[in-house]
């Protein structure tokens, strides 16, 4: 593999696993004779600037340690260059690692993947000037995320549980206008997602079988569900069987615009912004190191 590597970590990922895994990755890479520059950004923008500066200075491999948010940052930095992205998963979701078959709980094994240097070209999803890797969520799950971010307590998963209960209490259909490669659809729905990969949110398999290298985005629309139907259907996201639900519809497109009032979309676990938003596939934009 390349001997010029930059390592960028989110030390708070996985409730502190990020810092531990970053230290182990740094020692293992240097122990293998790799020249490693350790980067630490003060925030997302600063970290992205550091990564891009390292790549502009000749770094050929950027290794990120963290969850899907860090992978998104790394992909944003690497896309459009000849550099490759290595991933040491340390988050709570790790959907990119799940999709690409990367070791999710063994940082030493993840570093071995980096050292072997085998890469795969995958698509990215461009939204509002940034490139995303997994899924743009723009339905009930996005509303839950937005509500959870408004709460100051409690901390951890319980905050999302309370946010879900709060949004479920006021659940009602959302009116969407969706453009798929120029075709306009107006519909009401409970869930809408634009997927580059099959899962998001720690294994929610919204678009089972979606390929990250086919040059398309998978657009999922779940027609309005009652509170009881949503509660009963939600576990099916973890098994990939939601697609057999009679209100589940899936289309494919290269360019998708989603509009709806009052919805703030999320992608790769991060807040993207209020709708309307346009997502466009960027074929083969990312060279990522895989087993």
TrEMBL record:
<protein>
    <submittedName>
        <fullName>Diacylglycerol kinase</fullName>
    </submittedName>
</protein>
<keyword id="KW-0418">Kinase</keyword>
<dbReference type="Pfam" id="PF00781">
    <property type="entry name" value="DAGK_cat"/>
</dbReference>
<dbReference type="GO" id="GO:0046872">
    <property type="term" value="F:metal ion binding"/>
</dbReference>
<keyword id="KW-0067">ATP-binding</keyword>
<dbReference type="InterPro" id="IPR017438">
    <property type="entry name" value="ATP-NAD_kinase_N"/>
</dbReference>
<keyword id="KW-0808">Transferase</keyword>
<dbReference type="InterPro" id="IPR050187">
    <property type="entry name" value="Lipid_Phosphate_FormReg"/>
</dbReference>
<comment type="similarity">
    <text>Belongs to the diacylglycerol/lipid kinase family.</text>
</comment>
<keyword id="KW-1208">Phospholipid metabolism</keyword>
<dbReference type="GO" id="GO:0016301">
    <property type="term" value="F:kinase activity"/>
</dbReference>
<dbReference type="GO" id="GO:0005886">
    <property type="term" value="C:plasma membrane"/>
</dbReference>
<dbReference type="Pfam" id="PF19279">
    <property type="entry name" value="YegS_C"/>
</dbReference>
<dbReference type="InterPro" id="IPR016064">
    <property type="entry name" value="NAD/diacylglycerol_kinase_sf"/>
</dbReference>
<dbReference type="GO" id="GO:0005524">
    <property type="term" value="F:ATP binding"/>
</dbReference>
<keyword id="KW-0479">Metal-binding</keyword>
<feature type="domain" description="DAGKc">
    <location>
        <begin position="1"/>
        <end position="131"/>
    </location>
</feature>
<keyword id="KW-0594">Phospholipid biosynthesis</keyword>
<dbReference type="InterPro" id="IPR001206">
    <property type="entry name" value="Diacylglycerol_kinase_cat_dom"/>
</dbReference>
<dbReference type="InterPro" id="IPR045540">
    <property type="entry name" value="YegS/DAGK_C"/>
</dbReference>
<dbReference type="InterPro" id="IPR005218">
    <property type="entry name" value="Diacylglycerol/lipid_kinase"/>
</dbReference>
<keyword id="KW-0444">Lipid biosynthesis</keyword>
<keyword id="KW-0547">Nucleotide-binding</keyword>
<keyword id="KW-0443">Lipid metabolism</keyword>
<keyword id="KW-0460">Magnesium</keyword>
<dbReference type="GO" id="GO:0008654">
    <property type="term" value="P:phospholipid biosynthetic process"/>
</dbReference>
């Amino acid at each position: 593999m390349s001997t010029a590597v930059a390592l960028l970590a989110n030390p708070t990922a996985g409730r502190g696993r990020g810092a531990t895994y970053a230290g182990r990755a740094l020692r293992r890479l240097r122990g293998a004779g790799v020249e490693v520059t350790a980067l630490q950004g003060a925030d997302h923008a600063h970290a992205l600037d550091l990564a891009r500066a390292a790549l502009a200075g000749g770094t050929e491999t950027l290794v990120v340690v963290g969850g899907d948010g860090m992978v998104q940052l790394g992909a944003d930095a690497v896309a459009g260059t000849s550099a490759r992205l290595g991933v040491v998963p340390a988050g709570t979701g790790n959907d990119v690692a799940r999709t690409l078959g990367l070791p999710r709980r063994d940082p030493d094994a993840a570093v071995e993947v980096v050292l072997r240097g085998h890469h795969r070209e995958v698509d990215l999803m461009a939204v509002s000037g940034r490139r995303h890797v997994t899924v743009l969520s723009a339905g009930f799950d996005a509303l839950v995320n937005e509500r959870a971010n408004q709460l100051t307590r409690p901390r951890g998963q319980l905050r999302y549980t309370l946010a879900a209960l709060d949004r479920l209490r006021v659940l009602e259909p959302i009116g969407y206008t969706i453009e798929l490669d120029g075709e306009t659809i107006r519909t009401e729905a409970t869930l809408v997602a634009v997927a580059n990969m099959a899962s998001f949110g720690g294994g929610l398999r919204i678009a089972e079988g979606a390929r990250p290298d086919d040059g398309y985005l998978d657009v999922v629309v779940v027609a309005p569900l009652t509170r009881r139907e949503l509660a009963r259907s939600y576990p099916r996201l973890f098994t990939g069987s939601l697609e057999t639900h009679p209100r589940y519809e899936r289309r494919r497109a290269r360019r998708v615009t989603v509009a709806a009032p009052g919805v703030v979309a999320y992608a790769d676990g991060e807040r993207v912004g209020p709708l309307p938003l346009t997502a466009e596939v960027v074929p083969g934009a990312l060279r990522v190191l895989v087993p």
